[in-house]
């Protein structure tokens, strides 16, 4: 379908002279042909009603689907400095529905009263990111949670990114067949210092799939963005 840019007035679309020339003379548009007209914010399905003069009738707004077909929760060990912002901002662009910052054995920054401002800032980042990439919903950023509570959270598929086991962990991509439409996926990424052995053992008790994110040890924020990208790419594909 041909796509044009213009303005929408009542139930008609108006396009400029150059585009009219393109539609009539170059593409040889015909009466009854459907075209798409975007006003810069929304796209509309239209039909060519007449050519002389050109009349384009709006049929309906095209509801663009911008959310992933899976409900993706990204839980990450709270990091120092601005790295949390990066996870939320980029994760939002990649389609994460919910962020859970958590504390665990190797948490470096201990969330204090004043840290509540940090959560507020993260929520702001989610809002900014959602607007920038035109998400339909602003992802949720929960308050700080304890690692054990994150493990106990229900999900259809629980993924634990564990760097110490990369030699025997499955690559994240190998979980593709387990990623089903409308399922809830929880991914857990450790803080700067990673997870302790005890924490990893505990995750096994909670039915986590242990995955490798490649042969290199990634920084926590890179690991979070990598995991969200891979799951997003699988979910944008042809999943059932
Ligand atoms: N303990 C590490 C660094 C941890 S990286 C060290 O200092 O050597 C922070 C987190 O990113 C990890 O806990 C893990 O969840 C994730 N991560 C980074 N690289 C990874 C990899 N190659 N495979 C799986 N998870 C990885």
Describe this structure in words.
There is one protein chain. The strands form two sheets. Strands 6, 7, 8, 9, 10, 11, 12 and 13 form an eight-stranded parallel β-sheet that branches. This protein folds into two domains: 3-62, Ribosomal Protein L25, Chain P, CATH 2.40.240.20; 71-235, SPOUT methyltransferase, trefoil knot domain (Alpha/beta knot), CATH 3.40.1280.10. Helix 2 (83-94) packs parallel to helix 3 (116-132). It is built from six helices and 13 strands. The protein is an alpha/beta fold. The mean pLDDT is 92. 30% of the residues lie in helices and 28% in strands. Residues 161-163, 166, 189-190, 193-195, 212-214, 216-218, 220, 223 line the site of S-adenosyl-L-homocysteine.
In short:
The protein has 240 residues and is an alpha/beta fold. It has two domains: 3-62, Ribosomal Protein L25, Chain P (Beta Barrel), CATH 2.40.240; 71-235, 3-Layer(aba) Sandwich (Alpha/beta knot), CATH 3.40.1280.10.
List each distinct ligand once: S-adenosyl-L-homocysteine
Which sequence of SSEs, written as H and E, runs from N to C?
A: EEHEEEEHEHEEHEEEHEH
Average pLDDT score: 92
Biggest β-sheet description: 8 strands, parallel
Number of strands: 13
Low-confidence parts lasting 5 or more residues at pLDDT below 50?
none
Number of helices: 6
- What is the CATH H-level superfamily of the largest domain? SPOUT methyltransferase, trefoil knot domain
CATH class of the largest domain: Alpha Beta
Q: Give the helix proportion (percent range).
A: 25-40%
Q: Which overall shape is indicated by the principal axes computed on the Cα atoms?
A: elongated
Based on CA atoms alone, the radius of gyration comes out at 23 Å
Look at the helices and sheets and give the structural class: alpha/beta
CATH topology (fold) name of the largest domain: Alpha/beta knot
- How far apart, in Å, are the first and last alpha carbons? 27 Å
